[in-house]
Design goal:
Helix 2 packs antiparallel against helix 5. The protein is built from ten helices and 19 strands. It is α+β, with helices and mostly antiparallel strands. The longest helix is centred in the first third of the chain and has 15 residues. It has a seven-stranded mixed β-sheet. Helices cover about 25% and strands about 35% of the residues. It has three domains: about 110 residues, Aminopeptidase (3-Layer(aba) Sandwich), CATH 3.40.630; about 150 residues, Gcn5-related N-acetyltransferase (GNAT) (Aminopeptidase); about 90 residues, Nonspecific Lipid-transfer Protein, Chain A, CATH 3.30.1050.
Length: about 400
């Protein structure tokens, strides 16, 4: 069997979507909302097809995006639609595609690759580390009162889709400031979010859009649907505490509902500290963004650090040889630098574990206790924890 890897054209999209759907055990037709939404954002020059003769038997895609990282933003390759047809599995094809894709991402000078894993067992072998988690929240309306009286001073308003498409991006761009892991949505990505807000083509009820304003200033929004007495929060974004509490109170006290369920929420959700009975808020956590440092030196230079200081980190990368080095990271007065060094390392770790720590959501002590980080110098783990620390947990509420 000879497999050829090549890039797509626009004409390949129907076949690409078929292969991707088979890989997820789905069946998608050209009339499905998910088909249409994905077609509108499909980048053929970034889609890799594995060909067995004239048949597509594997696929790997990436979208060009910009993500918040500690103290800055970074170009990323958002990896998606990775699949191998069932007839060609267990033959090393996925590894071949991943290698080809990461080399291409490196050529495009995108220092990070980010994906959401369908199976957590797969991507660590290619250098991806589990860097952030999201919660699905659920609470009964009867137990959702706030601990302290709260009366909004602004205005909640239902709005139509066209107005929402115009104003929500403006609110979103302010709401994500300083939250690591969030992406800057392009106009095309916003279209996809409105066409298929939860990337689920089986939604049977409509989506409501509500904005929160104060003195004409746009401060927040929520998108939700109601199904069988459950209010489903698809997205709630706020720019300050008042808009946050106002939008949550609106959802939690909706008449004729019994339960409220919210998806893709941060693990450090403020709501837990606002409720009178926080134990009633049930959270189910799941890994979200897996980060792969494609160019370790550039990725470590681009982010900022929690304290002034320096540390030498030896990175082991079995998949991308150019990353196998010891790096000296230094930070002073908000400026950071990362250079290759021949000095002895303070800690040694695999590139996948460096990816896990990159956004500040996982500290080095956790990985050391799990036997994944080796401390060479005294107190080096504590130093790394402080340097890589962030104020809030990373959050990524976009699926791709």
């Amino acid at each position: 069997m000879t497999i050829e890897l090549k890039y797509s054209t626009w004409d390949d999209f129907p076949y690409v979507k078929t292969i991707s759907s088979r890989g997820l055990n789905n069946f998608v037709t050209v009339d499905d909302p998910i088909y249409i939404a994905h077609k509108n954002i499909f980048p053929p020059d970034r889609n890799i097809m594995a060909m067995d003769g004239d048949q597509i038997v594997g696929n790997a895609l990436s979208y060009p995006m910009v993500m918040n990282i500690p103290g800055a933003t970074s170009k990323i390759a958002a990896v998606a639609s990775v699949s191998v047809q069932a007839t060609h599995r267990r033959k090393g094809l996925n590894r071949k595609m991943m290698k080809f894709q990461l080399e291409n991402i490196h050529e495009r000078e995108e220092p990070l690759a980010v994906l959401q894993a369908t199976e957590s067992i797969i991507y660590g072998r290619y250098g991806y580390g589990m860097a952030s988690f999201n919660d699905t929240l659920e609470i009964e309306r009867s137990h959702s009162k706030f601990a302290e009286p709260f009366e909004p001073s602004g205005q909640l308003s239902f709005i139509e889709r066209d107005e929402a498409k115009n104003i929500f991006p403006k609110i979103y761009s302010r709401a994500i400031l300083g939250r690591n892991g969030m992406i800057e949505r392009t106009p095309e990505w916003w279209e996809a979010r409105f066409d298929l807000p939860s990337w689920d083509n089986r939604i049977e009820t409509g989506i409501w859009n509500v904005k929160y304003t104060k003195d004409t200033e746009l401060l927040g929004y929520v998108r939700f649907r109601i199904d069988d007495s459950t209010l489903h929060v698809i997205e709630l974004m706020s720019t300050n505490l008042e808009s946050y509490k106002s939008l949550w109170q609106f959802c939690l006290q909706m008449d004729l509902t019994k339960n409220i369920k919210a998806y893709q929420r941060p693990t450090d959700e403020d709501l837990k500290w606002i409720l009178a009975d926080p134990r009633r808020l049930h959270a189910k956590s799941k890994d979200q963004n897996w980060i792969r440092l494609v160019n370790v030196q550039e990725a470590l230079t681009n982010r900022k650090y929690g304290i002034d200081g320096s540390i030498n980190i030896k990175v082991v990368d079995d998949f991308l040889d150019w990353n196998n080095n010891t790096y000296s990271i230094s930070s002073e007065n908000g400026e950071s630098e990362c250079i290759k060094t021949t000095e002895d390392p303070d800690i040694i770790l695999n590139v996948r574990d460096l990816g896990a720590t990159y956004l500040g959501g996982i500290n080095f002590s956790v990985l050391q206790k799990a036997g994944r980080v080796e401390e060479i110098s005294h107190n080096a783990i504590s130093q790394a924890n402080l340097m890589f620390s962030t104020d809030r947990a990373p959050w990524g509420n976009d699926l791709w």
